[in-house]
C-alpha cells in the first residue's frame, strides 16, 4: 500500500524549490551585473566575487580537461535520487532530517544545473579574514553545507541514536 506523499519526508520538497530558486536568481544577478573576476566589497569580511568553478569544492579537479563536468553531474544525480528515496521513506515528522536532505538536494540541483548548462558553477560569495580568503562559494553550496551539518547534528541529538547507544 502506498503512503500518502504528505505523510512522508517528501512534504519538505518545497524547501528544495526555495534553494533552487534563490540560488538561480542570485547567480543570474551576478552574471548579469558583474564582470568575471570582478569584486564588490559588501562588509569588512565579505565580498561579491564573480568566478567560474570548473571543478568541485575548492575547485577540486578544475584543471582536468572537462571530463570532471560529467563526473560531478553524475555524482549530483546519484545523491539527489538517493536522498529523495530516503525522504520518501522518512516520516514527515522527522523535520531536521528531511530539512537537511531538502537543503542538500536543492544545493546539488542548483550546482547541477550550472554544470550542465554552463559547463561550470557560478560562485560569488567571498568570505575573508585579513589576507586569508575562504574558497569562493554560492547559495547552493550553503544549502549543501547547512544540510550536511544538520545531518551530523541530528546524529548526535536524535532519540534514535541515543537508544541505539544504550542498547549497544
Structure description:
By secondary structure, this protein is of the alpha+beta class. It contains 5 helices and 4 strands, in the order αββααββαα. 57% of the residues lie in helices and 14% in strands. A hairpin with a 2-residue loop joins strand 3 and strand 4. It starts with 12 loop residues before the first helix and ends with a helix. The C terminus is likely disordered.
Compact description:
With 168 residues, this protein is an alpha+beta fold. Helices cover 57% and strands 14% of the residues.
Strand arrangement within the widest β-sheet reads 1-2-3-4
User: H/E order of the elements?
Assistant: HEEHHEEHH
Q: How can the largest sheet be summarized?
A: 4 strands, antiparallel
Distance between the amino and carboxyl termini: 33 Å
Helical content (DSSP H or I, runs of 4+): 55-70%
The number of distinct helices, counting runs of at least 4 residues, comes to: 5
- Report the mean per-residue pLDDT as an integer: 86
Please give the number of β-strands.
4
Q: Give the C-alpha Rg.
A: 18 Å
Oligomeric status: single chain
Q: What's the overall geometry? A: globular
Structural class: alpha+beta
Strand content: 5-15%
